[in-house]
Each structure stands twice: as structure tokens, then as C-alpha cells.
Amino acid sequence: MPKRLTIACHYKTDELLNKYRQEKDPVTIRQYQIIWLLASGKKSEEVAQTTGYTVYWVRELARRYNRQGIEGLGDRRHHNRGGQTLLDEFQTAQLLQAIQEPPPDGGLWNGRKVADWMSDLLGRKVSRTRGWEYLKAMEYRLRIPRPENQLADLKEQEEWKSAPPALRSPQRKDGARKTAE
Question: How many C-beta atoms lie closer than 10 Å to residue 118's C-beta?
């Protein structure tokens, strides 16, 4: 039979209950509840079932609380800076300068072209999605006009736009208009 989980006496049970009730952060509330239930004599399996966390996480929180006290609790994701960016500040400035000019193969800059440029700079493959993310972060976007139908009748389009919605007749796939019968 496994050894019973014990909680260090950093705070009394009623003090933990008060902290649990007064906390505003939802993650920290659950963690105070877990420690309070464990300090009240509940088994880690019961606490896990009550709170919806795994037994492993309940025990991990108990170990953290026993080592660090209240400072060991809380949502630590707030302090996570995330992963390192692909380009440093100098390389980002280089990219910003490069997209001021037309791309080497002509046309307009897009995610694939930025990713290819980054791949050449970094010496490793960069996905086109990452290239698009960098392009968006620099507040660039494709400025390509929507294609126009060369066979469109401009007069007919204007008549359709100016007609009341109830009188507009939808088009069939063959391009002919349905007639009201």
C-alpha cells in the first residue's frame, strides 16, 4: 500500500480555505482547493476525482507546496516567455528591408517567398506558414485585385445592383437567367 500523502503545515486548514475562497485566478483557485482538501485529510485519489485533475498532478502540487509553500502554487504559464523566435532582431530588420524590394523571382511577397528567404538566411527549411506569420507580423499582406470576369456585361451588373433584392433573378450554372413565370 502506498504511503499516505502529507501536507506541510505552512498554513492551517482554515487559512487555506480562506485563501481558496478569496482567490480570483481560476487555476490558482483549483490548486488552493487541492491543497486544502489534502490538508483536510482527503486521499489524493479522492481529491483528483473531486477536482478533475489527475492523481499525478495532485501529488505534484502537494510536493511543490511542501517545498515552496504558497509561492509554489499558481499558474506558472504566465511567466513562460515561449520559444525562441526564428529570426533575431537584426535578421528581422534584414527581412523588413528585403520585403521593401520586389522578391527575386518577381511578383509579390507571400508566405512561401518569405519562407524561402528565411531558409536561405538560416540554412534550414522554414515552412511557408512561418513565412506568412512573419509577413503578417510586419503588417504586410497580398494586395492583389480580385480577378474579373472578362465576359461580364457591366451594364447588366449595374442593373442587377440597382434592382430591389426581391426582383433580382438568380443565374443558372449555364449563365442564363431564370425568368419569373
Answer: 22
- Per-residue pLDDT for 177 more than 60? no
**Could you tell me the pTM of the whole model?**
0.48
Inter-residue contact 15 to 9 (CB < 8 Å): no
The reported pLDDT for the residue numbered 64 is 92
Q: How far apart are CA 110 and CA 114, in angstroms?
A: 6
Q: What residue has cell string 500523502?
A: 5
- Retrieve residue 77's grid coordinates: 504559464
Measured CA to CA, the distance from residue 181 to residue 170 in angstroms comes to 14
Instruction: Name the residue ranges covered by the structural domains of the chain.
Output: 13-79, 89-137
Classify 127 as helix, strand or coil. coil
pLDDT band of 28, cuts 50, 70, 90? confident
**What's the CATH class of domain 13-79?**
mainly alpha
What nine digits make up the cell of 47? Answer: 481529491
